[in-house]
Amino acid sequence: MSQFYNSIEPNIIDDEMVQKAIEEQCPEDTRELAKREGIDFKDVMELQLSFRNILHIDNLWQFENLTKLQLDNNIIEKIEALESLVHLVWLDLSFNKIEVIEGLDTLVKLQDLSLYNNRISKIEHMDTLQELQIFSIGGNNLTALEDVIYLRRFKNLRTLNLTGNPLCDDERYMLFVVAYLPDLLYLDFKLVSDTTREVAVLKYQDLTEPLEHEEAQALAQLEEKQAKQKELEYHKTAFVEYLNGSFLFDSLYADDTEAAQLANLPGVGALLQAYPSWFVSVCETLFNYGLKEHEKREAEVSNFYKSLHEALAANQQDGKKIILDFENRNEKRLDEIQNASSCDIAESKRAEYREDILQLSEALMTLEMLIADQLEELIKDFKSNVADIASTFIGNVKGIMTQCRDLENHHHEKVLEIAITTLEKSVKNELDEDLPDDVRMLLADKNTIVNAVNASHGIRLLKIDKRESDIFCSTYRWQASVTEKAFQNEIDRNRDRVKEIVQYIDTLQEELDNIEILEPLE
């Protein structure tokens, strides 16, 4: 085999190769047309590049909508350059020289994968292929039965081919695989019988049950993590993330060395017993208020679009009625014009029809003007309501955040009092407490201790201000986003509707202009 490969001139995947492959796939009756006009690679769904002596996978990024790719029977040594093929469902890399499973991370839709007859010695690097249903990795160098356990993560895997690997020679092979992959229907091209499954489960249950328990725990943890993430995303849409607990308070003291040193002053510890609970209580008030306001915002948007759709539906019904009346009136008009008994009568009927088309155009455009004016008023009211909701929310947030600042200011005043008192005692050598050296350094003089207390206080106020500012910015962005979207949607809708009316009228006019009047028989 190696001598055969050495005699082959390796090829690369270039535009000429893929163009030829695409043309070969085309039906015979369209092949010449494809050659002449070319094919946009983005439109190609399937691509066969078998038996072409390909050494490296390359130049496939243009096939972004590809669902099926055949690269079998080549001399490929590495799985690479498949990142852009995110819609791939079927991939055949059999009969190549691949040694490592890799480069498949982005192929999250892959259902059928063949790596048959390569040089692979380990099943790995496939975690993202959660849609995998069929996997062929026979004829490789797999030696360890335990490698099969890796495949348990693919809950949709139903067909597996391992035949031709050294591990198949193990007398435990069949029962081991079936026990560890209980949902497998076909193994090595054979249906897994109920009897085999029962024997396998019984033989390996002492090993598989603990594994199932671990997997169940891991799944529960993952679901809990996902639920928390989903909840956090909801809190973010309400602009109050991390306000349902001590998150903000904890952040005030994060990396604040002065605060950590000042906490050693006699009496400060007692202050810190009550302060956090008060601060957290205010944060939770803001959190609960934010969730309610989010519901109010969502309801306002929902009601707006409900009213908008109702208005549009009524307008569309009126438009359909106008067109239907026109078509009923003029159902036979073109035939009458064409078969008129004289040219004068034909021209008269043509003029009547042209006038009817003009009236239809005016009626449809008037109807569109009416709905445009109606929606403009609706959007203006929506914009005003959104502004009121945002303004009220921001005003109340300011009030609640002021409570946080008041608590911080009160705490600061108490800490400052304690610091001055401690300094005075230190000067008089009346301190009973044995303070750490870094704290005693703060007590060197009044300026030092006051500056330390003020600096710590300033840091916390800035963090409170920053959180308040974040809420304001998120609110303003929401306000701008929903109103701009409403305005832009209406602009696009109006433009499309006018274009639609013009095209319809033009079609009617064209039909009328193209009609030939038959000469009456003598």
Describe this structure in words.
Helix 4 packs parallel to helix 5 and helix 10 packs antiparallel against helix 12. The protein is 61% helix and 5% strand. It has 522 residues and is mainly alpha-helical. An 8-stranded mixed β-sheet has the order 2-4-5-6-7-8-9-10. Strands 1-3 form a two-stranded parallel ribbon. A hairpin with a 2-residue loop joins strand 9 and strand 10. The N terminus is likely disordered. The longest helix is centred in the last third of the chain and has 85 residues. The protein is built from 12 helices and 10 strands. The chain starts with a helix and ends in an 8-residue tail after the last helix. It has 2 domains: 222 residues, Alpha-Beta Horseshoe (Leucine-rich repeat, LRR (right-handed beta-alpha superhelix)); 268 residues, Phospholipase C Beta, Chain: A (Up-down Bundle).
